[in-house]
Amino acid sequence: MSQKILIVGAGFAGVWGALGAARVLDVAKISSRDVEITLISPKPELQIRPRLYESEPARMAAPLLPLLEAIGVGFVEGVVDEICVADKTVRVVGANGQERTLAYDRLLLTSGSKLNRPPVPGLADHAFAVDRSEDAVVLEHHLEELAKLPDSRARNTAVVVGCGFTGIEVATELPARMRKLFGPDAAIRVVVVGSQPEIGPDLGPNPRPFVAAAFDSLGIEAVLGSGVVSIDADGARTASGAHIEAKTVIWAGGMRASTLAAQVSSHLDSLGRVEVASDLRVPEAPDVFVAGDVARARCDDDGRYALMSCQHAIVMGQFGGHNVAADLIGIPTLEYRQPFYATCLDLGEWGAIYSEGWDRQIKLTHTEGKARKQIINTQWIYPPAPNRNEALAAGNPQASFG
Q1: Which SS3 state, helix, strand or coil, does residue 143 take?
Q2: Coiled-coil segments, which residues (predicted)?
């Protein structure tokens, strides 16, 4: 009877995890008849989440079946809603509601993260998001419908709640998107609201002057130090009592790890991520490895931890896939390390800023930064072509990213 590796989630960590696991078996000359690798996800596609702030979000997905077939990885369509570590099984619910139980010898959990949606009055009914492709498509249809309405201040105003990375990219993309839909002469107003005192609180001081310059250039307003306390069909109200009239409110209030994390470990951080060992193993469930947004993993020798980003998820997936297969066939696992860190922040028509290092030393700005962002968004974060040799090489955890 063959041994079984299950990978839960087809985000960046899951896809590159499948590549990494298949590579180990290929190098060891172990066939899929002896060790089966199966990827489980609601759809056989990788949503390119870092691009969902752009227009035409329905295009931001990469098909996976040809790639998985090329490397000998199976696919099960469905949602995992239960992991039983004691029995080494997962329960999968299909689109038709039918349940099935799959057994594993090793599990790689890469179920990712979701937008944090706190119980703010009106958020569920009146706010839009760009967390998932489905969310971004709803927003796009909303903007297209607004274009059919008479010109008004409320129609032409968008409020972005959240002044972090996603909020900044959404806000700086909106003026051009809205002008294209509403007409070049429309008086577009974009307001970013954040409870923090500064834009991009996690970005550090180096990028902020460039973000401020982009906001000024694009006419984007920032309301800081006063978060949104309620949302309605006519706009958003801040903690200071001000009501911003707008037909479009977009929530970008941070991320939280998949709730499946709590089913494999009781040691979670404030974002709900699993505290993993250096090889991405769950200490209290040694047959389970975790990678991507659902893992709190130390990525260098200076005590820094991976962020919820595709940059870290891809490399962590390579390591996680390698280790889950290596552990199963009895070869040493690898210590996850990713010392190189870069940030590329899209700032709409202003351009983009590219920085390197955790202190974010600015390397490229304006059009040069935009060119780098376009390479990242259209090449580096996409899966390899369904060519077996190329695909397996992409699973190498010791290859550099970017």
Answers
A1: helix
A2: none
